[in-house]
Amino acid sequence: MIRDPDLAAVAPVIRAVRERAPLVHCLTATVSMGIVADGLLAAGARPMMTETLAEAPVVTTVADALAVNLGTLSTDAMDGIPATVAAAVRDGRPWVLDPTAIGLAPVRTPLARRLLDSQPEVVRGNASEVLALVGAGAGGRGADSVAAPEAAEDAAREVVRRTGGAVAVSGATDLVLDAGRQALLTRGTSLLTRVTGTGCLLGALTAACCAVEVDPFRAALAATTWLDLAGELAAERAAGPGSFRVELLDALDAVGLVVENGVGQ
To answer: Contact at 8 Å (CB) between 143 and 199?
Structure first.
């Protein structure tokens, strides 16, 4: 029996990721590629990464899901992302938008707002990013939020109205909602904010969950819970941010093993 009620609630989605090993095409921030790729593999999914206009739309046709992150937007990605999203939508492939560091940025901000018209299954971001996405805020300080998740609830509902999917707002208390449901999750650890790329990893993990779960709300909640619980386990074992990064990869696998075995946690 899985003792943790939060884990038990999302165990079917995690189990499906472990069983099906979905291939996730990640157009992600350069600075976070390593932890995103390693984190997906540790969770039981499989990553691939290319962002050019010449290759990304073609490559995504063999993926099970697409994760789009605007963290270090290159010229290649600026051209490749819209075409890759169009290919995913055309093929009915689930995709996740992570509008990292939008707000003041003059290129990625309008791009993120245009991408909403392609109706991602899930939008995952911090409160400042979600507010900026609907023009209700100026964004955070880089990738850091200057607003609490609850401050972005109305903005998140506006995103849901436009996409028909779900929104996951990360923070000390995570907020996940869709048109009819809402969940608050006060789990995880502050060490998740002291390692580069954990938010990017969450976006990619959300895409992996979307690949095996047709309900975007359940997929977003499963990914958020998975990373939060892995963060807690890693924090127990780590001496600081450096060792936490390594322990987080082991902990993503450990949470999956708990679900597979049906005991512990």
So the answer is: yes
**Residue 141: C-alpha distances to residues 47, 146, 199 (Å):** 29, 7, 15
Q: Where are the domains of the chain?
A: 21-223
CA 45 to chain centre: 13
Number of helical (H) and strand (E) elements in the chain, helices listed first:
10, 8
Give yes or no for a contact between 164 and 178, defined as CB atoms under 8 angstroms apart: no
pLDDT tens string 137-193: 555 444 555 556 678 899 999 999 999 999 999 999 999 999 999 999 999 999 999
Gap between the terminal Cα atoms of the chain = 9
Q: What is the pLDDT of residue 263?
A: 66
Nearest to 159 by CA among 227, 206, 105, 98: 98
Question: Quick one: average pLDDT of 100-121?
Answer: 91
pLDDT, one tens digit per residue, over 202-232 is 999 999 999 999 999 999 999 999 999 999 9
Question: Domain 21-223's class?
Answer: alpha beta
Three-class SS state of 52: coil
Q: What is the dihedral of CA 135, 138, 142, 143, to 10 degrees?
A: -40
Percent of the chain at pLDDT > 70 equals 94
Per DSSP, the residues of 98-154 read E-TT-SS-TTHHHHHHHHGGG--SEEEEEHHHHHHHTTSS---BTTB-SS-GGGGHH
What is the separation of C-alpha 67 from the centre of its chain, rounded to a whole number of angstroms? 8
Of the candidates 104, 27, 110, 111, which has an alpha carbon nearest to the alpha carbon of residue 72? Answer: 27
Kindly state the tokens that stand for 224: 């958020």
